[in-house]
Specification:
- The complex is a heterodimer of chains A (195) and B (245).
- Chain A has 195 residues and is mainly α.
- Helices cover 69% and strands 0% of the residues of chain A.
- Chain A has ten helices and no strands.
- In chain A, helix 1 packs antiparallel against helix 7 and helix 7 runs antiparallel to helix 10.
- In chain B, the strands form two sheets. Chain B has a four-stranded antiparallel β-sheet with strand order 1-2-3-6, covered by helices on one side. A four-stranded antiparallel β-sheet of chain B has the order 5-4-7-8, with no helix packed on it.
- Classes of the chains: A mainly alpha (195), B alpha+beta (245).
- At the A-B interface, helix 1, helix 3, helix 4, helix 5 and helix 6 of A face helix 2, helix 4, helix 5, helix 8 and strand 5 of B.
Chain lengths: 195, 245
């Protein structure tokens, strides 16, 4: 099981510029290729967030439709399709969690994080097996509390104040856990992802 | 704050979960093209992209590929869903609200009864719940639009400071292919802020919710324009609805 995401991700990102161009030309076969390349990753991420296969199907469909509708704003040459898709998918799923839980956060905050222009000039083929392995190893080295706050931020979209409310911990403690956890992840990937 | 003080926050900013004042500080650095923050936030986005791939792998059902391809080709999806049922309930409630002018409680009661039905939780249900929450607020500011002698889009806008903006409209024709309606919250003396895309139903009614806090006192109007389906950052056409506060 541990190796599966790695195997799925190997070679991912190769050929993305050409695929993005075809999406921009509205080639319907390009969407099939995009799904075949990223559908599993996107579905796995959304299921992890909403924990319901049926809802995840709706959200994955929305994700690909949104990318199809916004791909003209994507930089086909310099853009990173995989990270953009994952960001759009995460936002759809977090937005669902927020609306289902009546959490009063502005959806516009999330929309700011998924504009296609934000995914340009990434490291080539950023989603690579060795990088995923390093991040997973770094996650496993974190303390349980540090891992929890990273998961609450990424998979539940909680702010630090919301994490403090959820866990019953003081805000200062949460901030310390977040800061040290992110530093560990950053350090682990520091040489692999140049700034 | 300087860039060194902000570097701990780049990842939370990239995830859209960073609070003020740090969020505003990073946004200000990016707006003035600060190289350190641009580079730091880009690295953070890359790290967060990789984090997204660490979810336990789950193979999607085979039918999902067909649904995705049908969605982009404009063919109807074949999977049965509660969404049309809820859309019909919502449309009926809107008609009730608009026909029984000034008696929104009737529509609220219809929606409340609909909510009590035990169904699987769908996005449509979540959306209607958000609409109900705003309708339920006694202090929500209410604005009527489209009351002229012609037949413009008509309806009401409800603004609740904590829960957001709810638009109920009728006589709103379906958008042409590739187009959608975009709602705008227009601050006093400021540029319109995008407030989400929506479509009208086949009976020319529409419900749209912008969830989240809204500063009612500083809002001059809520407007709707017809835009391309993906949405635009600023209006490019004359508004079809203007609800001035």
């Amino acid at each position: 099981m541990m190796l599966l995401p790695l195997l799925l991700a190997i070679e991912i990102g190769e050929g993305d510029p050409e695929l993005a161009l075809r999406l921009q030309r509205r080639d319907p076969r390009a969407m099939a290729e995009l799904y075949d390349r990223y559908g599993r990753l996107v579905y796995s991420l959304v299921v992890r967030i909403v924990r319901d296969g049926g809802i995840a199907e709706d959200l994955v469909q929305e994700t690909f439709l949104r990318v199809w509708n916004r791909v003209q704003g994507f930089d086909a040459e310099k853009g990173a399709l995989g990270p953009w898709l994952l960001a759009v998918a995460r936002n759809r799923a977090i937005d669902y969690l927020r609306s289902a839980g009546s959490r009063l956060r502005n959806a516009l905050e999330l929309q700011e994080t998924e504009h296609p222009a934000l995914f340009a000039d990434f490291e080539k083929n950023i989603i690579q097996a060795d990088r995923i392995a390093r991040v997973k190893a770094a996650l496993e080295k974190l303390s349980a509390n540090q891992r929890t706050v990273i998961e609450l931020a990424y998979f539940e979209g909680l702010s630090q104040t919301e994490m403090a409310e959820r866990t019953g911990q003081p805000l200062g403690t949460i901030k310390t856990w977040v800061r040290t956890a992110l530093k560990s992840l950053r350090d682990e990937l520091g040489t692999a992802v140049p700034a | 704050m300087n860039c060194d003080e902000l570097r701990d926050y780049y990842e939370l900013y990239a995830l859209g979960v960073l609070e003020e004042p740090e969020s505003g500080e990073i946004r200000a650095h990016l707006e003035r093209a600060c190289p350190a923050c641009q580079s730091g936030v880009r690295s953070a986005r890359q790290l967060m992209a990789i984090l997204g791939t660490t979810a336990p792998p789950v193979p999607p059902p085979a039918r999902l590929r067909g649904r995705v391809l049908a969605a982009v080709s404009g063919r109807p999806a074949t999977r049965w869903s509660w969404a049309p049922v809820w859309a019909a309930v919502a449309a009926a409630a809107i008609v009730a609200a608009l026909v029984f002018n000034g008696r929104e409680q009737r529509a609220v009661a219809e929606l409340a009864r609909a909510r009590s039905l035990s169904v699987s939780q769908t996005r449509e249900l979540a959306r209607l719940n958000r609409a109900l929450e705003i309708l339920d607020q006694p202090d929500a500011r209410q604005v009527v639009f489209g009351t002229g002698p012609a037949m413009p889009p008509r309806g009401r806008v409800f603004l609740d400071p904590k829960r957001g903006v709810l638009l109920l409209a009728s006589n709103l024709p379906p958008a042409p292919a590739g187009k959608a309606y975009e709602m705008w919250v227009v601050p006093k003396g400021g540029k319109p802020l995008p407030a989400g895309m929506f479509q009208s139903a086949t009976d020319w009614t529409a419900v749209h919710v912008l969830p989240g806090p809204v500063d009612v006192a500083s809002t001059a109007a809520v407007a709707v324009t017809l835009e391309r389906e993906a949405g635009v950052p600023q209006p490019t056409s004359q508004p079809v609805i203007v609800a001035a506060l």
